[in-house]
Design a protein that fits this description.
mainly alpha
């Protein structure tokens, strides 16, 4: 859905105000992509790009093969014939 320029800017400003720290990545997005990005991260209250790598613990992450099979189940179907 396209918004008029003044509504789009107001919405982006409103969403931006709910996130304490925004990444450089989010600032470089075009208006449409930035609005969608801000809508998503506003739900959790933090821009994930600003989280330092050291805070991610690899033992808490799912194995990549499992993630792929969940995200792309058709690629991992086994032929049972």
């Amino acid at each position: 859905m396209d918004f008029p320029e003044n509504e789009r800017v107001a919405l982006i400003n409103e969403l931006s105000s709910t996130i304490p720290v925004l990444s450089e990545y989010s600032r470089k997005l075009d208006d449409h992509a930035r609005r969608r990005y801000l809508e998503k991260i506003a739900e959790v209250g933090v821009d994930p790009v600003t989280i330092p790598d050291e805070q991610f613990k690899s033992d808490c992450l799912l194995p990549i093969d499992l993630i792929k099979s969940i995200c792309y189940p058709n690629l991992f179907k086994v032929n049972t014939r």
